[in-house]
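Before a colleague's protein record goes any further, I have to sign it off. What it holds is a sequence and that sequence's fold in token form. Would you go through it and say whether the fold makes sense for this chain? The record follows directly below this note.
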Amino acid sequence: MADPSKTEKPTPKRISDARKKGNVAKSQDINNAAVLLTASVLLYFSWPPIAKLLSTMMIERFSNLPLQDFTIDLIVYLAAQTVQAMALVVAPIMLSLLVVGVVANYAQVGNLLTFEVLKPKPEKINPVNGLKRLFSMRSTIEALKGLLKIAIVGWICYAVISDRYVELATAYGTGLLGLGTLIGSTAWMIAWRVMFALIVLGLLDFAYQRYEWEKNLKMTKQEVKDEHKQAEGSPEVKGEIKKRQRKMAQQRMMAEVPKASVVITNPTHFAVAVKYERETMEVPVVLAKGTDLVAKRIREVAQEAGVPMIENKPIAQALYKQVEVGDEIPPELYAAVAEILVAVQRANRKVGA
């Protein structure tokens, strides 16, 4: 019985996993009908030349038999020749049936090569599981399908024979050739109708097999969510990755603070490290920035490295909001930052004096 909680259609990944295990929707009735149809058509059109070839061969092989010594070697030779001739006749038909079987299977399943179904599984030889499969709904449906096919074939045979009952009953008077022709045409009429019925049953069975296959692959909402998490990564894992990335970026940023010319503070909520070298740089560049705890760490690193710190709330906030780490400061802040850098240089000269 289907799980009522499985209300979602199978995802492409679930379908792909099922195919890898050999779990596909397929109707054996379509394969059987296609092979039977091909065999009937081939025999219908090729039987006259086949019969003529076999007749000629038998005449050639056995007409001179009374004139030869009847030995074991002769029997072996004639048997080998007969088998070889039969093989040449039957081989094209068998090859055609093989191709039709492969094509019919490919049309249902598509491009699939898996050896998963050949792997030994303990549950397959478990007698309890065997009894469950024997009395399962699927087995019941398969048994009903078999009875339905037998009933349809029987009804077709009865209908055709009942229509030609008088002809068949009086055909003995037409001679052996006439009787054979009538039986052959009757058999061919039965075969065509049976093949048509089997094709229709095969298509219906494939539709049912497809429905059952999709129903068995249905998923619960939680299974869909879990699969989505596996495909894109769980939020916990993604959060941890982002956390580590931020930590590494912060470590790289802190390593640049000792190279700064000045750290502009808020004084406690914002801190921005700015570098400017007259000889190599045209515009000052922001090396590091942060708020609260990060700002505190920037100030600590700057203090340890002896980098000057100047408090300027408007400039610190403007630099933090407008400039990314590694970018040049915008033109509207040139003058204000230049004043801070000049003040730092004057302070350095006084300390040096």
Summary: The chain is about 70% helix and 5% strand. The mean pLDDT is 80.
